[in-house]
Amino acid sequence: MEANNLQPSPNELNSYIFQGVWKRYDKPYFSRLKWTLGNFSALLVMACVTALIALAQAQCWSLVRYIITQHKKSPRLGDSGPDPLLKLSQSEAIAAAMPTLARWLSNVSERLPRRLRVRLRSGNNTQSQEEPVESPMFGLASLAIIIFFIIMGFTIPWWLTEGALGTPIVKSRLTSDCLESVRTDHLLDMLNRETRADEIFSLCRDELSGGCDTPYHLVDPVITKTRPTTCPFGGDICHPNTPSFEITHWNMSPLVMGVNSRSRVLMSQRLTCAPINLDPFLWKFKDGSVIYVPKISDGAIQLSDNISVILTTLNGPNKFSNESSGRLMFTEKGPLDLTVLPAFTAGTNYFGLPESLILNDFLQRNDSQSFLVILRAGLSKYSQTVDDPFFSAHNEENLIPELPEYIADYEATALGCIEQFKYCFLPSPRSMPCTEWGARNQEFSAMLHYLIFHYTGQYNGDVYSILEHTTDQNLLSANEMLNLFKLVPARFAIYDYLASRISIHKIVPLKRPKRIIEFNRWLDDNKEQWIIEVETWFMKALLSGILAIQDGALYSLLDPDPGFSDAYLREWKLCGRILFHSPDFTNINWRGLWATIIAATVIVLGGSLVDMIPERLEHCSKLVGRGVVNFLSFLKKLLASIPNASQLERQAGQVWNASLLFNSLSRVRPWYNGRPESNTPFDETEMNDLRASPTHPWGDDLNRIEEYSEVDNPI
């Protein structure tokens, strides 16, 4: 599938999903390993787990039944043979406990209102009042086991599959095509896919609350909005009585950007905008004027499309003219467009070189990237007056009687914006582990410098070797700065979002009009529509950045330094680390799965062994008794063959009488108050023949066995 033919869909990367066990670094240790399977395969695995849990439930009953039997022996047991309670089923145990439960319910009903108490008594008068033969503990334990394993049968598969009904986060697989790809070979693909965020938002008619971008966010972004009362620029060029608008996206981790990473570096992004007066940037030019943003040092203006906008009028009413430039351009059918100055790419500095473009003193700031967003209203008209300073419209135009419309006041209006970035490193021992707010290249270089120069290990002179073979968090984060964060400012910047769509894609990135006629615009807010536009740009740029990083699963977004080895590229290249949602797959907690299987298997084996205990004990006791009798018979014959055997025979007689004791012990004796079974004869004379065996003191120096257990190595 060609990358540039992929449609804007959450499932567009399904063919690139890695199916197997992988490690998700943002999760805790126990849930870090994920096993990604297709939905049908995952369903089969969970069916097997559920069946194992059901089998464990039956064997758990055998264990609990045996424990209760040993703790509370039955008074109705026969003499030999296994205890019948060890064959008691769960249904029989519950039925035997019903009279006790009914009596408890009757006691509870005494505290209920009289009418309800009569109903309960009438329903319970048919119950047997006899005490159950088996202890009610069997029934209560059976009910507890059934309820517990029913709950576990639902909760364990739910927990292992991260909720099952949600859309899991999966990882891309590492392909040879991606490893061998070169960034320059995919520039056209990148451009063709650049407007996908706009197409996705258009499905919700650019409404931020529509949820069209929700499937693409791995975690909810932390965004704050404030209204500073100060102007972000000097010289009082902001509109009076109009607070600025500041929107900030805090702590963007690699997970927010869609990358599986061990790095703990976080990036924050801030945009501050305010409506400004264009007069300080306006110069007369021929019959009209020009908006010029660079600093004029020698009094000469060098017109260029990326640093200036030529207007047809003097943009009055202003210091140059009292004529309404907005009405004039409506009459002359002027253009409707949006322009960013400096234009793409005059306002960017991707390579960290000294800035060559110095802006007007009113616009220049050393701690941020400054730019103007200029709107030319053209034929735009509104059904009511617009007090918004960016879309200002008070000129009444009665094209249709009794239906007045209003056209723009100026040919051009502008917003002044500054964009800033900040990087934080949480493992840093500093009290303030973050850089200052600043321009993209400045703060990137500051964080990279801090990570490398605060590495505490020994430097062997080979920076490639150190970066490749390290577990130090400083250098791991430095690797991520070089492979991911170097891309991020250009992909997520609002300036880049606006500049590329205006200069390259030739679109006007304003909210879609709510009416069919393009120029008959319907604003959401007649007083502060500009704030809605700025917030929309911010959210579209965020989604556009996420989608641009996701393209790393298809081809190389950044050509790595050739000094690194192939093993380094396989570990750090984005191809095998991209994270995204896919409803066609399921993640299973790998460690949790094995913990469940082992626990259930132990219960099953334990229950099976318990079921074998009575028969094994009876069989073993018979074998031991027969062996003792045979040994004593052999000993008697041996003594008879020895001279002076008469005296030894008398001693052996005592031993032979002792053999009767072992012979008796070889039988399974009845419990207290027991009675013999009908098919077993009771030989009273044999019981009377037993004599007290001579006492033989045991030695006190028995060998002791030191028990120990091996601790499994953690996975």
Automatic annotation (TrEMBL):
Keywords: Membrane, Transmembrane, Transmembrane helix
Source organism, top-level taxon: Eukaryota
Region span, Disordered: 676-703
Transmembrane segments: 40-64, 137-160
Annotated protein name in UniProt: Uncharacterized protein
Organism of origin: Hyaloscypha hepaticicola
